[in-house]
Amino acid sequence: MRIDVDALKCIGCMACEMACGYHRDDAFALLASCIVVYRAREKKDYFGVVVKEEESLTIARPEGVEIKRIGVAEEAGDSGQKKEADASAKPMLLREPCDLCSDMKYGPMCVKICPVNAISLQDEGE
Amino acid sequence: MDYLSSNKILIVDLNTGETSEDALDDDLVSQKIGGVGITSSLYETYKDRDPVILGTGLLTGTLFPASALSVISAKSPRTGYLTHSPFTLKAGMELKYTGFDYVVILGRSENPVFLWLHDGVADILDAAELWGKDVWNTTDLLRKSMGDDLIQTLVIGPAGEEGSDLAQVCVNYWANGDCWGFGKVLGEKNLKAVALRGMGLLEISDAEDFVDQCFEIFEAIKGSALEGKRGVEDILIALGESDAREWLAPVVHRHSACYNTPYPTNTFIYLNEDPTTLTEPAEPEPGFMITDIGALLALKKSGLSAADAGHVLRACARRGVDPAAVAEIIGKTGQKDPKAIEQSLEGLQGTVAVPQGAKFSSWVPQNPIFGDFGLSGESSLRDWWVRRQAVAYLFGIHPIFANMSPELSEEVILEMVNKGTGLDLSQETLDQVIEDICS
Ligand code: SF4
Ligand code: SF4
């Protein structure tokens, strides 16, 4: 299973990011979240969501979802994750990957908290 | 304060260029709660030095729904007494994570400066290069010079520098809740901007219970009257503008929410780009984010198209002038040409009526939106609005969302704050604090 995001539904509220931060730190903080809203192109209203997984980055843009294998993304120069790196203070690649909140009683917290149901669980490969 | 707090009050003396810190005392929180309860108390302490105070609520920046709000408290040039302005988007949350719960800005700098708050550090920096720039260029320059596009800014434009009573403190590029002329107050202090960025962490007293209940409240909100509604258009419809959707449709791009707010109160319109574009537009400044519902409504009622209203609102934000005040003044002239309105912004003067004794920003519509708060009668509506705003400004809750969601009752809020902080705040304390700040 993996996390899937419909960026067109997303309203950029960051609730998922804070929920993931809580899962990591048992406190409210954003530095360790593995789901991050990229919002650096504020004047263009161009925003979406990036999820760090074990071997890939899911980049959910308004025009569609792209899944990049991490080795490929790193080598990709200015594309892929590098393009989204301005989304956060701590680069995505240095963060723990999504573990689907395996130790949390709530299940995947980002799925549960998203107010517009933009996040869902998908079977691997879907 | 150990929980839901950075435990710091920052004192900034612009005369000497020095800063100092006080701890946020548990007793102060027990007596005044937070947000405008504490900014009002700090204002009394420092009122001989013309203070501007930034403050967070105990819930600001948490997982509690709509915990997006921080406040600016200062004496308004429009009223001559202490008033409060909310600021939201992501800036309210960002202040909380800079490492300061409250920031008291005293005196006046000899030269233009900006305040840079980040990770528990406060720097007063030279703003010579920023002075004279409009709001958009100032935010761009601040982000570029510090290499971080996520810096949030409270910023003034030419209107604030020139001492207009209509000057607004904007957030990043956009209008926000300042209807009090605080832009002029910052201009008089030679303070061009406050830049915010933080990587802080907030401990929670009873974390599991707090988060459990956040999820429960989110669930209740998801199934409430605001389900399926979006953006400023549905708010306008709820306020009686039944044709708002058709009016805005030609320019609407997307709707977005302030931090952790379950309703997108902001609507981005494209003015020089196809609004159906999904990919990143080549045009660097394709449009404008509408954050001021009252200003938009007034321009609509003046007979402007949505695109023309967008051009006027964008010009207001660049200049750092309160768009609601502009819309009211322009409405009286009958002017409908956006170019002519934009030109008239320079040196625009005029007065805008403020309800007697008002303390909270009229940026928030005066009616319940979507949610049923069980109200009846004219006087009860005004009392309800004031109390609802007081609660939002005390705890850090988005003040527009507060008027949408009866789920965020005072009882629920108090229970959550007590879980999160380990304090034992009572309804009597809340009643007393509201009475104090409203008197
Ligand atoms: S499922 Fe859990 S770990 Fe994975 S992105 Fe969502 S909150 Fe983070
Ligand atoms: S919680 Fe949902 S709407 Fe909010 S930023 Fe995350 S994906 Fe977008």
UniProtKB/TrEMBL annotation, chain A:
Signal sequence coordinates: none
Domain 4Fe-4S ferredoxin-type positions: 1-33, 91-124
Gene3D superfamilies: 3.30.70.20
Pfam families named among the record's database cross-references: Fer4
GO molecular function, one term: metal ion binding
UniProt superkingdom: Bacteria
Keywords assigned by UniProt, alphabetized: Iron, Iron-sulfur, Metal-binding
Stated name of the protein: 4Fe-4S binding protein
Protein species of origin: Desulfomonile tiedjei
Organismal lineage: Bacteria, Pseudomonadati, Thermodesulfobacteriota, Desulfomonilia, Desulfomonilales
UniProtKB/TrEMBL annotation, chain B:
Matching Gene3D superfamilies: Aldehyde ferredoxin oxidoreductase, N-terminal domain
InterPro entries on file: Ald_Fedxn_OxRdtase_N, Ald_Fedxn_OxRdtase_N_sf, W-dependent_AOR
GO molecular function, one term: iron-sulfur cluster binding
Aldehyde ferredoxin oxidoreductase N-terminal domain span: 7-200
Identification of the protein by name: Aldehyde ferredoxin oxidoreductase N-terminal domain-containing protein
Originating species: Desulfomonile tiedjei
